[in-house]
Design goal:
The structure holds 2 protein chains of 2 kinds.
Chain A: H1 2-6, H2 12-37, H3 43-49, H4 51-64, H5 72-96, H6 101-124, H7 132-139, H8 147-166, H9 168-176, H10 178-183, H11 188-209, H12 215-229, H13 233-257, H14 263-281, H15 287-311, H16 319-327, H17 339-360, H18 365-368, H19 383-392
Chain B: H1 3-33, H2 38-58, H3 63-88, H4 92-113, H5 123-128, H6 148-151, H7 156-174, H8 176-184, H9 186-191, H10 196-218, H11 220-235, H12 241-269, H13 278-296
Helix pairs in contact in B: 1-7, 1-10, 1-11, 1-12, 2-3, 2-4, 2-10, 2-11, 3-4, 3-10, 7-10, 10-11, 11-12, 11-13, 12-13
The chains are: A mainly alpha, B mainly alpha.
């Protein structure tokens, strides 16, 4: 069943939803990257919660005009209006008052959502208000959806993605270096506005698939995950889009494969699984890589200290150091140095002396600041400078018998 | 309206609403000043998986297991946010977004997969609460307030949220100076030898406690709104922390009372037959108050404004 779902063999509607979710996930991943790089990820939370009163108002208006209140296109149009109002409210509160952005976000999201709930209870009491279609928008529900709705979602996902790709360049520039972008003549406010417009588009299209409470996850989790794998802006957005697209596709497929698997939560949990894997396994920034780096560092310190101890004729008490030296072929199991070990320890002691001289040289302050006890001195100074340092070393003297 | 109708039907919901609003608004003052306002948002989302897991373990919807489950989930969320922030080097807002959406998604999934049809446990209930249903059936009028038999029938939520409120007041009162100093000048507080990390952590802990207790009675929308709107509005009224806390308490109480009354009786005045969601209306009123404060508040523009 799952295999059929993953290979798009569960019927026309499920296929359309899966494609829509993939495109939406990709668009959300790309858009979210710019929010994340500008450290404004949670603005999307305010925007998505602010869609609820719009949905309610659209329903009431459509019923008042004698239409079907559950028309998805109408509901989404209404949600876009209040989402825009919510965004404007956040910006107005941050600009016009001394409230910080997080307070403005929290205030807008709770108040708009609260008002939306009031409208939902109004709708519940209306004649035509069996709100079956509306609470599906809180958490997303793609089961048993109309053909036209599935088409709308697929088309919406595609349109959002195209817009995102068109607006990509200026958004990258602003996210990467605001001052540079301004100097190049970009209007920062307009670019920010365009980003927010895309966030709104993603939110509105995602209402039916993921639901308004969880749509922020699609905008936040993929960029955070992508950031683990690369430091380059021009790759983060692509990777983030891919992660979002895969989460959307796999999530929609799993959800279609069995009953009682709501689409939104499954997509979010799929995305989080990718995040958790990246957190631990990513090269460089991952937890596992950090642990390995730490262990390697410890080893180098131990070997260095062991070599210095050998050079100065002191015994090594630390078992771990002896084991490491033995494994590197620098000492016997009982800690007595081998030929290679003696050579390396002499070199280590000489380097330590060289560092000491280097650190006493006033004109070498920058190089001396790099001293950390294990860095080879050859990587810090040129061979000329090394030769100069060596002139200060005491040359070996003949010892009288 | 006569007391025989008001006391059993409206007095206890209003009292519970006011207590919950103030219990959230008090720590909210410091959260808003510390730019941690969205902690309340995060905590109220993760409460859902907490109560679902508590239900799956105990098999009942009794209050205590639910509250313990919610509190554990809140603590777990705070720990996870901190872990992801540190381990991954991710900014706090994004780390928060990752954690609370994931935990909420897990809660929804667990709820859908488990058989909860026999009990009253669903997402809408968690969001909206059921303030309207917290009525006092044993009361027959104002004199019931002095009648021990009737008092024994008070909804248990009232006692819980009242005790929580007392606890929160005690916390703010006892830790007033350290909270104030570490909020405004953390570096100075540290030089003075205050355990600023511990203070910050205890503030988050008390906020979580208030959120969980209030959630039990009034649902998560009010919790988020009361953490932020009254303190934010109060901040636009004054430059003094003491006065700000006072304003925020007044705004919170006003939102709760006005919101409840408007939700219960407003539609009747407009000619409709049914009342609307009290939780949603209380949040809306608090938003209107914030809007007015942002337009006319004497300290809206900063220290000079």
């Amino acid at each position: 069943m799952l295999w059929q779902a993953l290979t798009l063999q569960l019927g026309y509607n499920a296929t359309l939803v899966a494609i829509g979710a993939t495109l939406l996930g990709f668009a959300a991943g790309v858009t979210g990257t710019f929010l994340f790089l500008r450290r404004r990820s949670l603005v999307s939370d305010a925007i998505s919660h602010a869609t609820l009163p719009g949905v309610g108002l659209a329903f009431i208006v459509m019923v008042a005009l004698g239409g079907d209140g559950r028309n998805l296109a109408g509901l989404l149009a209404g949600s876009a209006v209040t989402a825009a109002l919510g965004l404007l409210a956040v910006q107005w509160l941050t600009r016009r008052t001394r409230l910080a952005e997080d307070s403005a976000i929290g205030a807008v999201l709770s108040v708009f959502f609260g008002f939306g709930i009031v409208l939902l209870t109004v709708i519940q009491t209306m004649e035509s208000g069996r709100q079956a279609g509306l609470d599906g928008l809180l958490l997303g529900s793609t089961a048993g959806m109309l053909r036209s709705d599935a088409l709308l979602i697929a088309a919406g996902g595609a349109l959002t993605l195209i817009l995102t790709l068109i607006l990509r360049r200026p958004m990258i520039m602003v996210a990467f270096d605001e001052d540079y972008a301004a100097a190049r003549g970009l209007n920062i406010r307009q670019v920010d506005l365009a980003t927010m417009g895309l966030v709104m588009a993603v939110t509105v299209v995602g209402l039916k698939v993921v639901g308004l409470i969880l749509i922020v996850a699609l905008l936040i989790i993929p960029p955070v995950t992508a950031r683990f794998w690369t430091d380059r802006t021009e790759r983060v957005w692509l990777l983030s889009g891919l992660i979002g697209g895969i989460s959307g596709f796999v999530g929609a497929a799993i959800s279609a494969s069995a009953p009682a698997l709501p689409t939104g939560p499954i997509i979010v949990l799929t995305g989080f699984s990718v995040f958790a894997l990246s957190l631990f396994l990513a090269p460089n920034r991952g937890v596992l890589a950090a642990i390995l780096r730490h262990v390697a560092f410890q080893r180098r310190v131990h070997i260095r200290q062991g070599l210095l101890a050998i050079a100065q004729g002191q015994p090594i008490y630390e078992r771990y150091t002896v084991r490491l030296l033995h494994r590197a072929g620098l000492s016997r199991p009982d800690g007595v140095a081998t030929e290679a070990g003696r050579a390396r320890s002499a070199k280590a002691l000489m380097d330590e002396k060289r560092w000491e001289i280097l650190r006493a040289m006033p004109d070498q302050e920058a190089a001396a600041a790099l001293y950390d006890g294990i860095r080879p001195i050859e990587t810090v100074v040129t061979s000329d400078q090394l030769a100069e340092i060596d002139t200060y070393l005491a040359s070996p003297q003949e010892v009288s018998a | 309206m006569s007391g025989s109708e008001f006391v059993p039907l409206s007095l206890t919901p209003i009292l519970i609403g006011v207590c919950a609003a103030i219990a959230c608004a008090l720590p909210g003052n410091f959260l808003v000043l510390r730019r941690q306002a969205l902690i309340g948002d995060a905590i109220s989302h993760v409460v859902l998986p907490g109560i679902v897991v508590a239900f799956l373990i105990t098999g009942t919807v009794a209050a205590w297991p639910m509250m313990i489950g919610a509190a554990v989930a809140a603590l777990l969320a705070v720990a996870l946010i901190e872990a992801i922030r540190r381990l991954g080097g991710i900014e706090p807002g994004a780390a928060m977004g990752v954690v609370f959406t994931t935990m909420f998604a897990g809660g929804v999934l667990l709820l859908e997969r488990s058989d909860t049809s026999s009990v009253h446990l669903d997402v809408e209930h968690a969001l909206m609460g059921n303030l309207e249903s917290l009525i006092w059936l044993d009361a027959f009028g104002w004199h019931s307030l002095l009648d021990p038999v009737a008092l024994a029938g008070l909804p248990p939520e009232l006692m819980r949220i009242f005790l929580t409120l007392l606890g929160v007041i005690a916390f703010v009162w006892l830790l007033w100076r350290p909270l104030k100093i570490s909020t405004f000048d953390e570096g100075f507080a540290r030089v003075m030898g205050m355990p600023t990390n511990l203070i910050g952590l205890s503030l988050v802990g008390v906020s979580a406690l208030a959120a969980v207790a209030a959630f039990d009675a009034v649902g998560s929308i009010i919790v988020i709104a009361m953490f932020i709107c009254p303190p934010a509005a109060a901040r636009l009224m004054t430059n003094r922390l003491g006065a700000q806390v006072g304003w925020s308490v007044a705004f919170a109480a006003l939102s709760a009372v006005l919101g409840y009354v408007l939700a219960g009786y407003g539609p009747l005045w407009l000619g409709a037959r049914d009342s609307v969601s009290a939780a949603g209306m209380i949040a809306t009123v608090s938003g209107i108050i914030l809007g007015l404060a942002a337009l006319f508040g004497p300290a809206r523009g900063g220290a000079q404004g």
